[in-house]
Amino acid sequence: MNQRRLNQITALLLILGFGSALAIYLTADHTPINSLLNDPLAHKKYVRSLRMIGGKANVLAADFTDWFEGLWQGENLAWTVAVLTAGVTATFRFVAQRTGSTPSREADENTPSGLV
Question: What is the pTM (predicted TM-score) of this model?
């Protein structure tokens, strides 16, 4: 794959990814959520029950699950899409450059095997 084609694909990935993230961000609900009413982890009784049943690991697992679910909603989804876009694009460029042929290899392939 030549450098121009690689740059075109990279630009397309970035435009699609960041454009999607921007669209999600602009259409996301911006109303603040009252965490005391909607988040069970904000209540001491619930956290105590979790700790009694499964220990601190259970509370940490509940916190992680709550955080991970939050990544896929509202404005956080836009940031998640943006970070994933940057990661996928960087990985694509890394792999494409490593698997592509270098100019020295192309020159070696074009010369007869006895002359190298």
Answer: 0.71
3-state DSSP call for residue 89?
helix
Instruction: State the helix-helix crossing angle for 3-27 and 74-99, rounded to 10 degrees.
Output: 170
pLDDT band of 46, cuts 50, 70, 90? confident
* Structure letter (DSSP) for residue 100: S
DSSP 32: P
C-alpha to C-alpha distance for 91 and 98, rounded to whole angstroms: 11
Distances (CA, A) of 72 to 42, 47, 57, 59, 79: 20, 24, 23, 21, 9
Distance CA 59, CA 49 (A): 9
101: left (phi over 0), alpha (psi -120 to 50) or beta: beta
